[in-house]
Please model this.
Amino acid sequence: MPAMSPKPIEQTVLVGPADAVDPKPHDAVRMAATLVSAAIIICALYFGRDVLIPLACAFLISFALHPLVSWLVRVGLPRIGAVIVVMTMILVLIGGLVVVLGAQLRSLSEELPTYQSTIRAKIDDMRGQFKVPAVLDDPMGAVEEDPKSEPAATADAPQRVEVVPRSKEPIEMASEWLAPSLQPLAMAGIVFVFVFLALLDRSDLRDRLLRLLGGNLHRSTDALEEAGTRISKYLLMQVIVNVSYGVPMAIGLWVIGVPGAMLWGAVAAIMRFVPYVGPLISAVFPIGLAFAVDPGWSMVLWTIALILVLELISNNIVEPVLYGTSTGLSAMSLIAAATFWTALWGPVGLILSTPLTVCLLVLGKNVPQLRFLDTILGSMPALDTPTRIYQRLIADDADEAIDIATTEIETSSVKEFYNDVGIPVLRLASEDHLRHATPEHRLRVANGLEELLDEVREEFPPDGDPIVHTRILCVGGKWEMDTVAAEMLAHALELEGLPASARAASTLGTSNLADLELSKGEIVCLSYFSANPIVPARQLCRRLRRKWPEVQIVLALWDAPAELLEGDTLRDLGVREIVTSIDEAIGRLHRMAAPEEAEAAHVAEPPENEAERVAALRATGVLSGDAKEGLDAIAIRAADVFNVDLAVISAIDASEEFIVGQSRKLPGDTRAECGGMLVIPREDAVCDHVVSGGDTLVVADTDRDPRFADNPTLKMWNARFYAGAPLRTADGVVFGAMCILDKEPRTLDEQELKVLATMAADVVAEITGDDVGGDGAEAAEPKDPTATVGQPVPE
Model:
């Protein structure tokens, strides 16, 4: 029998996390190509500065002048006429300013020789008081040699020969005088021509830039609009800030008595265009002149005090109020940009550094390949709050994590902190537990979370007696993160007046299960961070049911996939409720412990001006149905704009909700005397919460919000998502809402919230005929953070 060859032994190769694998060769090539490209761009900026500086100046000036040109075009002037008018105005303004300031400068230069005696007297006084050497008395005289001390010339000594230069021709003298001024004049001329052309052919230039940016036309258009808006606003605010500094400076110097007050006020306003060093340079001239004019020291001291006061007011009051977030740049990026552009283009680069960096920031926000620029230059935090706290825990810096948590709680509440920050921190820890974390990191996170929770519980203890008597036991389902989440939930419940306690995951062991000591009607909330908690949850539920049949069980699944929540798999376990967030858990547990009280708490309270609001609604006449056709058109447009299943416009009367506009036919009771409008009882109206609060309401998933999970109107319309912006009249009265609804859960970003508020303003204009503004700035952000479920409020 032939011998059998040995069977090869199979080996299992364990591969670590994806990020632990050595980088691929093409990654290094891409990095090298990026560095080479950056070096080429920087060299091109440096060696091409003679051409690029005029272009940059021209385009930035055109950004500032474009709003004025557009206004003249809207008035009725042709575009070329509007551009000529604006450029003529600018030239006349600059020319007049040069004439006035030139006259002051000439007058001041004529008076300067008369100040020499004052300067000499002050130097003598300083030398006498501080015993300064006589070198300060006459600096030039201290280095001059005494002619008598020179040795007498002898007959044999060489004679000094003086070369007398040839007298210059008038043309040569004129060339020497004009040469230094030709380059600035040529630069100004080039800038003037480019500004004229940029204003005249703005549409063509915009089209060419869009073609150069390529890619997504929507994204490129948004990038150009954002860059233009930010730069225009920044330049306008810069002019206002500088004028608000220069005018008081001129008036103050005139009151003090410093000669050429108007000149120094204009210099101060102009020099503030130069970041950082400009104000210092502009302060030297009036202080030096006050030193030369006044024999005493009062004028100098008053001048210094004036400059300090104006700087403090401008830097701490005027600039923060006017600038706000017009640039979106961080303080560090502003300083780095000023250094970079000054090194490339000199003083002009320093002046242009902020607008140019704004352009780079906008490119970083809208071009995926340049997203790193947004991270480097932007003023928005690079890490969100949960990631910051988690990183501090990894770094074994629990104290800073506690400081961040305390600051977050002070701006909101403990419940909102647990819901919006605490659970996401635990989710990050759960995801990294097996993929990236080392044993040391896991220990740091566990210890840090324990310290953080102890600090929050000690700092914010529950006050007052419980509002119900049903005990709620929050138990970690499997491991430590489950237990921490249970402790967070128990603390949040206690703060809401619900008696609760937390137990560790080890409590659910076979030998420890009896220690729970549950009784009839009590609630057990099992906390899980597992993405597939079916197997452990089924076992625990069976054991709990077997030992305490009448105990109510709730599953808190903090990280379960949506398809698992929507199926019947978990419902077959015999649980009463399934929750996915702290807010939802509090709402559902409150309803289980005290149904009547929870139901009353979920009803929207009428606003304080209820009678005035109802009277204002009926005065519009919209309930007659006459405006329904126009409002239906707006609703259809809203459904199309937001790409949702349904859009409705509602008006809340004293006891009923009227659907005054809708994008499609809806089931429900209609009323013939109102033009066939759909009428809903007010207690079933989701929009009543918008009217009650007066703010935009966004519910990302109505099934996960206890207030709306059983709402009959939403179920009848098969809606899982709701967003409503208030219909607010010019008098501030809210009588209804502009609403969009969808079959699937979704979210809205900040820009979409503003669009919704704009369409709400269009509805009010259609109903009342009043223009209440369409920017949506006030209504874009929900003021009540609890109004948004499962979605952070845009900042």
